[in-house]
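Justification of computing resources. Each target in the renewal requires a structure prediction run like the one illustrated here; the chain below, 203 residues long, is used simply to show the kind of job we budget for.
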Amino acid sequence: MTQLLNRFTYLERLVHWLVGVTFVILLLTGAAFSYPSLFWLTALVGGGAAARVLHPWIGVVFGVGIVFMLALWIRDMFLDDQDWRWLGAVRDYAAHRHDEVPPAGKYNAGQKVFFWAQGLLAIVFVATGVFLWMPDRFSSSLLSISRLLHYAAALGGGLLLIVHVYLGTVAYPGTARGMIDGKVTRRWAAMHHPRWDEDQSRL
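Resulting structure tokens:
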């Protein structure tokens, strides 16, 4: 019988999916506003008028999710010496040469870097979105800069999201399960997060 380990709590999974789903909706509706050929995407939320009303409010929900995400994970996301060595062996990890990769704890260095990058982009995304939501209160130059940064953050976040989904599904099967039912197999843990697996063995 396959032994399972508890990896994520219900709250952690809820926050993860809240941030993920709202970000996808923001990306799709934002793309619809930016490119006329994609305006049909607004049908996903009830049409153009509904999308324009919902987009900023969904952004608020996304922002709240980011705050919870930071509160839940930030203490685990600082890189230590082992993480820097892991980054030096990232090519071996990508090639599945796990014997050449320094053992990772609960989160490997790649996940930690992703957390900081996505968190920074999210802050820019939300902050500039506030300016764009209330254009009458700000100067045209500030709005132009905000619009540029908003689009750049959306593009960067979207690309990171694609990589995140690919790594969690196609590249490393079994990873996504942790964010679905909160559990991973002991074999998966021993392969990808050996230090964390050892800690779980002591519990």
